[in-house]
Design brief:
- The protein has 268 residues and is α/β, with parallel strands linked by helices.
- It folds into 2 domains: 43-106, no CATH class; 111-218 and 231-258 and 264-268, Rossmann fold (3-Layer(aba) Sandwich), CATH 3.40.50.
- Helix content is 38%, strand content 14%.
- The protein has 8 helices and 5 strands, in the order αααααβαββαββα.
- The chain has helices at 3-25, 46-54, 59-68, 77-85, 90-98, 128-144, 179-185, 239-256; strands at residues 115-118, 150-153, 165-175, 193-201, 207-215.
- The chain has a 5-stranded mixed sheet with strand order 2-1-3-4-5, with helices on one face.
- Strand 1 (115-118), helix 6 and strand 2 form a beta-alpha-beta unit.
- It is elongated.
Length: 268
């Protein structure tokens, strides 16, 4: 091999090494695995609300969370009673009931076309605010229940639609409660109370159920600074729960008994 040939061979070898190194340097990086798909946040449930309340979060914070997150609440009468027993504030329970994606309890077979129309509840002027709160709560609770195929009221239908059931109510007795009486006599006295007389008519206009429902704050329920004269709360919070519970019992007994045209089904 001549000197020139040896030189060319060396240059060819160097070029091959440089080309190989350059190719390795610019080799495409191995693909990065895609980030794991993050599961959407699970909807809030009754258990979540109970845990937040037990963690001493304020009612305002919990309500904001309910309004901002997907929800899957059980708002059946039994579930509402459990929330009340756990001392969850009424404002939080109402937010759960109003949640548009709250799940309804497993539906019972309703009577075909059973639509309820709720008339404006009658009351004395001093009870107007309390009764308005009760009426709003009753409407929401009945819509969440499976007692009727649909629920409307005077607010959207000024006249009762033909072929509908009618629920009316009249305030019988109301007292706002007296902190002064409570301070003088002691715990459990001076409580607010509200008595509503309900009446349900079927599409034929016959009265099929009547019942008075009384609600008042528990003797142990209060709010305010410890040691001060504490407000025991409104007398309106349990009316919707008691109403749905009473109507559930009425319709359950109605389904269990054979039809009797002479029996109005009135419950006292």
């Amino acid at each position: 091999m001549t000197q020139k040939q040896a030189f060319l061979a060396i240059m060819l070898l160097v070029g091959t090494v440089i080309t190989s190194a350059h190719a390795q340097t610019h080799q495409a990086p191995s693909p990065t695995p895609p980030p794991p798909v993050r599961a959407s946040s699970a909807p809030l449930t009754n258990k979540d609300i109970l845990e937040l309340w037990k963690a001493h979060l304020s009612a305002d914070v919990i309500i904001e969370k309910i309004e901002a997150a997907p929800c899957n609440f059980d708002t059946s009468p039994t579930a509402l009673k459990d929330l009340k027993s756990a001392e969850v504030p009424d404002a939080v329970i109402l937010a759960m009931v109003r949640s548009p994606v709250s799940n309804k309890p497993a539906p019972r077979a309703p009577e075909d076309g059973k639509i309820l129309w709720i008339s404006k509840f009658a009351c004395q002027p001093q009870a107007a605010a309390a009764v308005a709160t009760v009426q709003e709560g009753d409407l929401a609770a009945l819509r969440q229940s499976s007692l009727f195929d649909g629920v409307t009221s005077f607010a959207t239908d000024s006249q009762q639609p033909e072929g509908t059931w009618r629920l009316s109510a009249n305030e019988v007795s109301y007292a706002r409660g007296s902190a002064a009486v409570r301070a003088q006599i002691g715990l459990g006295t001076g409580r607010a109370h509200l008595v509503m007389a309900y009446e349900l008519r079927d599409p034929s206009g016959a009265v099929v159920w009547m019942q008075e429902i009384k609600t008042q704050p528990s003797a142990w329920t209060s709010s305010g600074e410890t040691g001060g004269i504490q407000d025991q709360g409104p007398a309106t919070s349990d009316q919707p729960v008691k109403l749905v519970d009473a109507l559930s019992k009425f319709f359950a007994s109605r389904r269990a008994q054979p039809p009797n045209p002479s029996d109005s089904g009135t419950a006292q």
